[in-house]
């Protein structure tokens, strides 16, 4: 069962999101918060697999709450669910440690898929958000590609294999099945990869993998 914390300052939005998640018997909303500070406190108390956060909330916004949650509960994945898809929000959310970024205007099935992906150690972006990230990657790609190829030289051959599959969007369980490793070992590899690449989360690591050409190699 995937335990989810839901944080949004609008009760009606929380009710709607809860109803969508309730369509999946494998997901349980264990706590709800009306602001970012409460979201951090409830995450500390309940240790959910996924914290689903709005960006604009009182006391502590979703971006700041993401960073706090990643600090106090590093095993909890964060998914941003928002009306706002501006590039600055996307960059700040990913930079702060969010593993997912979903738009409230999107298909409800994306919400369920995003929760499953992040709970499984993967990442998930709404299609419009993913498109904008890819467009951003296109600018200055040659320079960033050279930097990414330099950075992956810090990795062992096995870590490069894991990074390639991570960049292709596979969860820890899927990577383990592909490489015949237990999920705990994959998680340890991913933690080491993030440290060696000096990135904060899987999304940033996936970008390095893409820019270095590892995704095409996988």
UniProtKB/TrEMBL annotation:
UniProtKB keywords: DNA-binding, Phosphoprotein, Transcription, Transcription regulation
Classification via InterPro entries: CheY-like_superfamily (IPR011006), NreC/VraR/RcsB-like_REC (IPR058245), Sig_transdc_resp-reg_C-effctor (IPR016032), Sig_transdc_resp-reg_receiver (IPR001789), Tscrpt_reg_LuxR_C (IPR000792), WalR-like (IPR039420)
Positions of the Response regulatory domain: 3-119
The protein's name in its UniProt record: Response regulator transcription factor
SMART domains: HTH_LUXR, REC
PROSITE patterns named among the record's database cross-references: HTH_LUXR_2 (PS50043), RESPONSE_REGULATORY (PS50110)
PANTHER family to which the protein is assigned, alphabetical: TRANSCRIPTIONAL REGULATORY PROTEIN NARL-RELATED (PTHR43214:SF24), TWO-COMPONENT RESPONSE REGULATOR (PTHR43214)
Organism, as annotated: Microtetraspora glauca
Residue ranges of domain HTH luxR-type in the record: 148-213
UniProt modified residues of type 4-aspartylphosphate: 54
Entry superkingdom: Bacteria
């Amino acid at each position: 069962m995937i335990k989810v914390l839901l944080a949004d300052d609008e009760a009606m939005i929380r009710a709607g999101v809860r109803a969508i998640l309730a369509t999946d018997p494998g997901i349980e909303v264990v706590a709800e918060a009306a602001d970012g500070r409460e979201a951090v406190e409830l995450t500390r108390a309940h240790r959910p697999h996924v914290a689903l956060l709005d960006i604009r909330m009182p006391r502590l916004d979703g971006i700041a709450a993401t960073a706090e949650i990643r600090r106090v509960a590093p095993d909890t994945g964060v998914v941003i669910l928002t009306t706002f898809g501006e590039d600055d929000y996307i960059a700040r959310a990913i930079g702060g440690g969010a593993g997912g970024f979903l738009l409230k205007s999107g298909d409800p099935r994306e919400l369920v898929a995003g929760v499953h992906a992040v709970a499984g150690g993967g990442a998930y972006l709404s299609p419009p958000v993913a498109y904008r990230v890819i467009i951003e990657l296109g600018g200055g790609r040659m320079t960033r590609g050279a930097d990414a190829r330099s950075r992956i030289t810090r990795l062992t051959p096995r870590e490069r294999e894991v990074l390639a599959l991570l960049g292709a969007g596979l969860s820890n369980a899927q990577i383990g099945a592909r490489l015949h490793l237990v999920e705990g070992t994959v998680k340890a590899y991913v933690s080491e990869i993030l440290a060696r690449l000096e990135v904060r989360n899987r999304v940033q690591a996936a970008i390095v993998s893409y820019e270095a050409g590892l995704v095409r190699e996988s």
